[in-house]
Design goal:
By secondary structure, the protein is mainly α. It has a single domain, classed as MFS general substrate transporter like domains (Growth Hormone, Chain: A, Up-down Bundle). It contains 17 helices and 2 strands. The chain has a two-stranded antiparallel sheet. Helix 1 packs across helix 11, helix 11 (about 240-275) packs antiparallel against helix 14 (about 340-355) and helix 12 (about 275-310) runs parallel beside helix 14 (about 340-355). InterPro entries: MFS, MFS_dom, MFS_spinster-like, MFS_trans_sf.
């Protein structure tokens, strides 16, 4: 079996750049919709009469459960059908669900709306990863993925800035009256403002993005293209059990720190330092934009640099480097004073924590056959969502509410939960480097598929 190389004529540099740009824009909106919830924790808890644990279910389980579960059938479609159409429908769905979050009058209503956000966002990332792998050479895939991952932090930063601005603007207004809706609180208005632009982006995506030709298709012994059915995906994963066990578990623990801090940092700074939502929005918006943005781009560059130097486990190595750099500051930042020093250590944590996004994705994409890439990504995102977003955010709340018994001790909870997760994640990623090298060599030896080549030169970055 020989993998078909993508010819130089399969899309211009301008086309490839546009696809990355519009996918990144969609990712920005998805994280704005997702992240704004954490900044509005106190007014939502007050108006809906929620506990920390209930709020963690809204920001964690409600989103992650359907995001993870629906990711599998949607990814299976993405490995066979038009990826731009799938992404367009997903953008429209999560944007509508975000808008409906602003109509919530109870925990149950908000929970269902966040479920809708999760279902819609499940359509974007696996399909986008799959398209990028058909457009860029493996030696430059890390930078393309880094640019895409940057969207999550631009979106997170924008959510903090926009949310902080809107909350500050209407902080003295008990309720606003809107046509057809009636009286709404400031946090509800924020959801309306954040959700509606996505409907326009969904239409633009549908009209302007073409599905790239698929390349790197695995074939069976007779030379026929394998269908990439889920049973074949699981068979492929079983053939690399040690590699994917270390990859999935290691990056999930690593991601637990990054995604958990995105959810809980606003509450920590409001409770510990007495900052207002507007102050927190501006401070964390700057941290996420600068530290996470720089980290994800540097992480993508590092993956490509290590790969270019001949390290077939370059993506795993980049993950180890980031996890090591993150461990100490994530333990220290909740316990130092003054606030600027805490924010500085948080920024260091976020910089190194962001390496996980391009590194984990590049590792999956270079090893997996084309017709399995979206499904392998979806399986990874399933575990990541349930563990990092679902369990990770809720575990902090349970430790704060149950073990420590005080909302004011959330900093201790963050250090304890995410410090342990960081150490375990680092160890697993280190242990996974050698199996990953073996898996790369075995794929080339057994299938004849050149896992280091599959796309034209000329990429973003």
């Amino acid at each position: 079996m020989t993998e078909q190389l993508i010819p130089e004529t399969s899309g211009s540099t301008r086309q490839r750049t546009y696809v990355v740009a519009i996918c990144t824009t969609a990712y920005v909106l998805s994280f704005i919709d997702r992240q704004a919830l954490s900044l509005m924790i106190e007014p939502i808890k007050r108006d809906l009469s929620l506990t920390d644990t209930q709020f963690s279910l809204l920001s964690g389980l409600a989103f992650s459960l359907l995001y993870a579960v629906m990711g599998l059938p949607i990814a299976a479609l993405a490995d066979r059908r038009s990826r731009p159409v799938i992404i367009s429908v997903g953008i429209a769905l999560w944007s509508l669900a975000t808008t409906l979050s602003g109509l919530s009058k109870s925990f149950a209503h908000m929970f269902l709306a966040r479920v809708g956000v999760g279902i819609g966002e499940a359509a974007l990332t696996p399909a986008a990863y799959s398209m990028f792998s058909d457009m860029f050479p493996k030696s430059r895939l890390g930078r393309a993925l880094g640019v895409y991952a940057l969207g999550s932090f631009i979106g997170g930063s924008a959510a903090f800035f926009i949310g902080g601005y809107v909350i500050g603007l209407v902080k003295d207004v008990d309720a606003l009256s809107l046509p057809l809706v009636g009286d709404v609180h400031a946090w509800q208005l924020t959801f309306f403002i954040l959700g509606l632009p996505g409907l326009l982006l969904a239409l633009l995506f549908f009209l302007t993005v073409r599905d790239p030709a698929r390349h790197g298709l695995a074939r069976d012994a007779s030379g026929a293209i394998r269908k990439g059915a889920m049973r074949e995906v699981f068979a492929f994963l079983r053939s690399h059990t040690r590699t994917f066990a270390c990859h999935v578990a290691g990056f999930s623990l690593y991601g637990m720190v990054l995604l958990g801090l995105m959810s809980w940092a606003p509450a920590f700074y409001m409770r510990t330092f007495g900052m207002s939502p507007t102050q927190v929005g501006y401070a964390l918006g700057a941290v996420v934009l600068v530290a996470n943005g720089a980290g994800v781009l540097f992480g993508g560059w590092l993956v490509d640099r290590l790969t270019h130097r001949g390290h077939t486990d370059g993506a795993m190595r980049a993950g180890v480097i980031g996890a090591v750099g993150m461990m100490l500051p994530v333990i220290l930042f909740p316990h130092v004073r003054p606030v600027w020093l805490s924010l500085a250590l948080l920024a260091v944590t976020m910089f190194f924590g962001s390496f996980a996004m391009p590194a984990s994705t590049a590792a999956m994409q270079v090893l997996s056959p084309n017709q399995m890439r979206a499904q392998v990504s979806a399986l990874f995102l399933l575990v990541l969502s349930l563990s990092a977003v679902g369990v990770g955010t809720t575990l902090v709340a349970l430790v704060t509410d149950g073990l420590l018994g005080s909302e004011a001790r959330i900093g201790t909870s963050l250090s304890l939960v995410y410090g342990i997760a960081g150490v375990l994640g680092t160890g697993l990623l280190w242990l996974g480097c050698a199996p990953f090298r073996d898996s790369m060599a075995r794929e080339e030896r057994l299938t004849g598929r050149d896992v280091q080549a599959a796309a034209p030169d000329g990429a973003v970055g």
